[in-house]
Amino acid sequence: MTVSSRNLHLLRLSLRVRPIGTRGFASHSSESISFSVPPEFKTRTPPYAALLTRLDKVREILNRPLTLAEKILYSHVVDPEEAFAGKSGQIRGETYLKLNPDRVAMQDASAQMALLQFMTCGMDSTAVPASIHCDHLIVGHDGAEKDLKASIAVNSEVFDFLRSCGRKYGIQFWGPGSGIIHQIVLENFSVPGLMMLGTDSHTPNAGGLGAIAIGVGGADAVDALTGTPWELKAPRILGVKLTGQLNGWSAPKDVITHLAGVLTVRGGTGYIIEYFGEGVQTLSCTGMATICNMGAEVGATTSTFPYTDSMKRYLMATRREPIANAASAVNNLHGYLRADAGAEYDQVIEINLSSLEPHINGPFTPDLSTPLSQFGEAVQKNSWPSKLSAGLIGSCTNSSYQDMSRVASIVRQAKERGVKPKVPFFITPGSEQIRATIENDGFTDVFLGAGAKVLANACGPCIGQWARDDTTKGEVNAILTSFNRNFRARNDGNPATMNFLTSPEIVTAMIYSGDMAFNPLKDKLIDANGNEFMLEPPQGDELPPSGFQQGDLEYLPPIDPKPIQSAEVVVSSTSDRLALLEPFEPFEGRELKMNVLLKVKGKCTTDHISAAGAWLKYKGHLENISNNTLIGAVNEETGEVNKAYDFDGAGYGIPELMIKWKSEGRPWAVLAEHNYGEGSAREHAALSPRFLGGRMILCKSFARIHETNLKKQGVLPLTFVDEADYDLVNGCASIETLDLLQMLNNCVSGVITLKVTNQDGSEHIIKTKHTMSKDQVEFFKAGSAINYIGSLRRQQHAQEQQI
Ligand code: SF4
Asked: Is residue 160 flagged as an active site residue?
């Protein structure tokens, strides 16, 4: 498909793409000297002057006090006039914002498809600074050294591919062993006022340093990587007012484990959680990161905190003093990093830190929250295992220096009384910097002396990479972890393992009892001489007194790597885990005609559409992972799972029939009921149906993110005007669009008419609705969003060459 120069002009106007060759944060001609930083900090500092200028425009239009989250988000809107003019009333929860994020971070599992898609755009480098982090594919079993070697051997082709993409496009590559994405982002990239996207749901961890950081799928990341504005419905703002000060055994983790109990796993959906109140100033920066990290567990878009002295201390400790000074200046002079006086929240929840007690959440859901004082009773009442089988601390959620030093204070106390843990104890440092610093400060020796196993600086047991050999599959057992997620089988692959989430301090106290009902605030342990004693509340330092150690410098990528155009991207043609993407065919320019491959009954989440588990291995190989398409779906006509029927009545697995019809050149549609595509924002749930020949999903309603993903991949998402029409259409029915062309040519919003002919000859005219925006119409015509952006980028490049 060719894209006219008029289209190119329109795209520039409507999408405001960054011009090629302007990689880095958007700058502003009036960039204030007071916010300037030395060159080596430039790509890590938000363009404060430009953001303030844009915020002024937003203020002129909205003319009301803004919350902190609104300030950061709205000052990243491409065109405030277009977004806000005439909408003085409702913005939150209603207006779609086109945003220019400052940075992108990608973890190894999701980076594969993000980069494969980015490659098809034909750009020489990313439009914004970006980083790749190899953390999810590392096993936890024998300890850091052996596990790392084994994992590198098994996953080398994926790591080689990611490294080569980093070289070619100038993306920072943090190799296996360097640390977990969110910890590295906090240590290096998160900055107050930054807006970033990350291809991982716990990206909001960066909110601990006052950023707006949002977890997205690969196709969304590609928007930012190509400089194409990223669209988000303006979230509502949930204010959490913190008063008082944590004390004793209570820790930052308890703020979020308590809040998860209040909000439940859906309570934060569509919201940014913004913390405020005097209690905020008492928290460490890393403690705030823990709280933001687990905002994902209540479904929040992201979470953030106003600028604090502890953020400044953390920036200085992580060798970013000029950035700390710029942030302080922008806050002191303009109040940019805090809410305006009088700003209103959509909802407010108050938490008194002084009276907050430790909480334990689980099993199987992070919002089943029990205060520690009631946990023993809950164990009995629910017949949860009375004995603990293992304790695990660390992960991206809780492996800060403060966490480790407080844990070490507990382990030291136990050692002094001659007591050893009763169950296996595992520690996952979040980064090489943390590993090296806790080793330098003697904590690692303390942990090893207690028989703990220190695992690699990676996700390991948090993401099912725990090669556990002390239990068998199906054996009911309880573990305590300082992680953030506790769905069945998440850690050790055993669906009967109950993971209870709590602070690292409580995990550590409990391993010395081994009893799930133990409460260190009131229960005693027995020392080596048979005497009773109580553990004292943990003590620790917020930051290392002698500074952070960088550890193995080989892990550190260049701060601002330059793209190497001649570099080859390494993908073996025989690989079953990676395959280069072929662009999808553009729209053929005539009304669509297809057949119904499947009518789905009931709930159909992205897990039903694109199963995870063992399939994750194939995330970089679209053809192979597509063999999982809709294998969890229930056939409405037969009640069978993963069964679809051909015209002659022959039954097939759903992806098998898709492959057959694709080979026969027969496009297909899937019909479904309500909230199709709810759950994780999994882009393969849109990519795979498209790859296997799907042209339309027609349902009673969509989960919005999945609907957007379908549009991005060139699949037509339609909903019934009259839900009862779902019953008029049968499997294998022929569907023809009657006025699709009119809609595409004129960008008419609203209704598309379908002619349905069932196999028994019955015919129906059905009205359906679409929600395609002008941009999304262009995506559809081009075959996918990536095709469209790629075409425009290539034209833009050609034009710039001519000038
Ligand atoms: Fe995700 Fe766990 Fe890794 Fe954090 S440590 S990024 S939660 S898998």
From this structure: no
